[in-house]
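Ex. 9. Protein: VWFD domain-containing protein.
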Amino acid sequence: IPPPTCPYPPFLWLRSAPHPPPQPPYHWWPSASQPRVTDLVCVCVCVIDPVYVWLSLMRVHVCVAEIQCPPHSHYEACGTACPASCAHSTDPLFCALACVESCQCDSGYILSGGDCVPRHQCGCSFLGSYYRTGDQLVTDTCSRRCTCPGGGKASHFCWHTLEELRGVILPPYKSLIQPHLQYSECAIRHGVRDCHTIRTATCSASGDPHYRTFDGLPFDFQGTCRYTLSELCAPAADLTAFRVTVENERRGSTAVSWTRQVRVLVYGYQVQMTRGERGSVQVDGIRQNLPVTLASGNIRVHHSGSAAVLETDLGLRVSYDWSHYVTVTVPGTYMGSLCGLCGNFNGNVTDEFKSASGEMVSSPVLFGNSWKHGNESCPEEPELPSPQCTSEQRALYSSEQYCGALINATGPFQHCQSSMPSLSAFENCVFDLCASGEALSLCQALGAYALECQGRGIGISDWRNSTGCLECQENSDYQVCGTSCPASCSRPGFPADCGTPCQEGCQCLDGYVLSAGRCVPPAQCGCLHRGQYRTPGESFWEDEACRSLCVCEPGSGRVRCRADACQEHEACRVVNGRRRCVPSAAVCVATGDPHYRTFDGRRYDFQGACTYVLVTACRGARDAPQFRVETHNREIPGRSVALVDRVAVVVYGHEILLSRDSLGRVKVDGLYANLPWSRAEGGLTVFRAGLYTHVRTDFGLEVGYDLRHHVWVSLHRRFAGRTCGLCGNYNGLPADDYITPNGTLVSSLHAFASSWKANVTEQCEHGCQGGSCPVCEHPQTYSGSQFCGIISHANGPFAACLSRLDPAPYLQDCVYDVCLAQGDRETLCQSLQAFASACQALNVSLSPWRNDSFCGVACPENSHYEVCGERDINRCVSLPTNTSSAPCAEGCFCDHGFRLSGEHCVPSTDCGCVHNGLYLQVCLVYVGGVDGVCRQGGECMSAGWRECGIRNGQMGCHDTFSICVVTGDPHYFSYDGALTHFQGTCEYQVSAVCHNLTLPWFRITTENRNRGNSLVSFIYRVHVYLTGLHLQITGRAVTGLCYKPMVVSQVGGQPVSLPAFPSLGVSVLVRDGTVVVQVGDNLEVRYDGASTLLLRVAQSYAGTLCGLCGNFNGNPADDKLLPDGQPASNDTHLGNSWRAEESECTDPPPGHRHPLCDVLTADPGPFAQCHWQVDPRHYYTSCVFDTCAYGMDRLTLCRAVGAYAAACALHGFQVSSWRNATDCREFTV
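Predicted structure tokens for VWFD domain-containing protein:
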């Protein structure tokens, strides 16, 4: 009986909770499990009684019908759940399961592969599997073909001869073990393993990058340009043309490169996949969320595993994982018709290195350089020696915890090693790790090999947990063999029958689907509008003129559009793949020696070496925010020209100073602050993006300075005709830009520029004028392509910009500067950077123009160079202003897994926190107005552990613990307040339990070493001895704003990852930039890795301790005792007596006084309130000693005073004004 019409659309299944299975006698049809997505229609359910049944929970109509059993079987309402089969004929005798409604074989028949057959027609059991009569199988390596003869014989026959194999594969073949080497392959297709003819070929590039051609030739090429990976070079009527190009970039290592971008040109569309743009691609420059369908369905782009996959009806398949791994698969019809880095696909590996001109070349470098796309003149990759591993590196990276997993015979890839060249993959993996030293390189290498194995239908085991490569997003988990065709919001069942092998990687959890690369519940899906998927809340311009603004309404799945337009002084443009209304602004630039360009486009050169007003709001701008931008120019000795070396921005009541020495930080109102810095509720922000430090406001002013030579000011058109300064009046007329502060229009450049001197009392010169300025005598020498000519080269890296920006002025400035610098390479690079910056400001996509030997950028640790990097990614603190409409920028960007913290790229766990708008790094840093400290993980906290009471005759908030401090070179401040100066260079006992057997035992020692001065010593390593545990903390200084923690390890073991809990009640973590060992409620050890160790012990230890920190009995007079209890004759005698091992130690030098240390004892003074709690006299003595020993070095003074500030802070006194009094604001110690 046909069922009635189903009133519910199929997708409702995905929007509801999982339904309980039907109870007997009902069951799902056609299978015994819950219906698949493709079954979500009105279906029949077979039941006993011929009636209609409606199950509301199932949301599906059911009907009745008689069960139709296959031949030689019959229906039983309560049949055995363990029917007899040829493979297991005795199963019914031992079945413990309840009976089930089912079809059972008739008497004399038995199950054979799902059919009921007479017993004498049973098949064979072989290698643990059952095969029916006549079945054939091929063994794992396709070296044997076996058949089951039947006739009741429990045996099999296998053939091993080449003659038998010739019937199933195409000749020629090279050996019995791998007969499929050239024209066929041993693979599983449609569930059958056999020697199948090769119908496709795949080329790949992975890692740094390692290429493998269609014909199987591996080679390495580290060029950083855009290259043709593969294209149709021999046109034919029956072949569709296509082209795949790749663009490579440096990441960290300057010796290797990685794939940054993949472009596919086919059927008139250009599809671009770019690193970091996960879940989306750009189609003809416009970013679209996946999945995407083009050319009437002939092009399909969708998410598969961790990659974007483009497939066409002609059999072309291109995948890119948005990171490093790209593959191109083509059908056999293209054999012999292709060219590019992927080779010619003719089955011959000996002729792969055929250049773009058709000549055979001898090396991968010559081959790779010849395939630069469009004859780009970006610097060619030179013939350089490959990075070499040290013996220690190779031993480490070859272990099973690293690349050795690839060749481990019992490892996760064991089943793939006979079919895939694991040895070459292993060598590539070791190469990548030696070149980069990053764990990400290991994950990429293993992941690429895993995908190749699974692409051939070969199973692998879980390898990510053992190598630490597991990182899945929210609402997803790792699967060793997950679908390569995941469901998405726009295609919940796409595709219904996935024809590609499974892939290891992250898969959305049950009940979640992909939405632009994120796993979301179906109820949180977005909208499908004109064939494009939009995320919930996403707004977009529907047309090219920005006249129809649409938004995807969350929850409804509907797109609503309304007529709209960009505001006045805004332009409709495509920025980073998105069509946006971009504020229409003008830009003023000062660059080089310096060359100026006003808002109205007038160019002039002025070599004044004073501070000048670049731009300020003036006439008629009283209703607009007031601002002022000044630049200070510094004369270059011997060249009669100057460079911008300092930029000041005065806005919203703050003075922001950017200078050459302020990388990663900014001076605001005279005090240094880490970047990013924000005020005025986000209306004023200072941040670092690539090579430039930016000052951005919410009213359309933005200033960028590269801290070397190039500054630009972008200003909204609301200020048109309302500015003055060296940037002109911004009225659209270049001819009247030379206006002095009194409003006079002058004709003399020198008179105009010098009139804008910011400080009339500044002693400086305004530089040359007229005929006295230097001239370039041989401009033709520097106008060629080896120097400045690269700017205007038609096939150069700036070619895409030539139609948008006139290169002539930039070329002229470049030739002049490089000529005066006599061909100086750095000057050339600065000129090229100025042009590159101007092009990127117009949203022009540039090809890589730098390499290691030409204008290379030295990036700090854990970062890499990008020619077009995202401005607001990988930061510890997100910017309060939206930068999504800003063009990309070139410069150094943090590696994967690291975030920008000030000037350093640190692990995410080492990010600091924001307090009152100030970003604080994880350091021992105390900033004015901050009453707490920043601890790891981004949490601000106040100092604690105090109680109100009377101690030493003083009523107040006292620490419930007592503290011993070892600081400086070093000085020992005992628990009871005694001071010891001792500069020995051995290991010494600082404190230990000596006179009590009931309290938890501990012993703390330090290893002291000289550091640049043989007169003094500092703590090099701290040892913490506990019952059954020995920890050692080794200091490690890092340049920058603070000292980073150190290496912590258990003696005899590997370094400890923090936080750690090595024993019951013992924790080791990083707090306030120091390593902290916490032992229950009794002991805390803090070491900053540089110069200070603090011990905090509970009052229960009073009178039980010994060592250089004293006996903790409340009496400082008896703290200097020898191990035998006798008083020491002097500090040296005391220190040597507590040596932990025999070694020669040095006597301390004499101490002196120094007036700079008076800040410690001054009353009134910044530390006055702390004097009663922490006696400053001993710290004063130590300060005098250190400053004299180090020749009155300012950093030494700041460290000495900082030690007392830290001790005060532990007692709850946050003292910050001492930095101003000692001029220590630039040092965070």
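Check your answer against this statement. The first strand starts at residue 53 and ends at 55.
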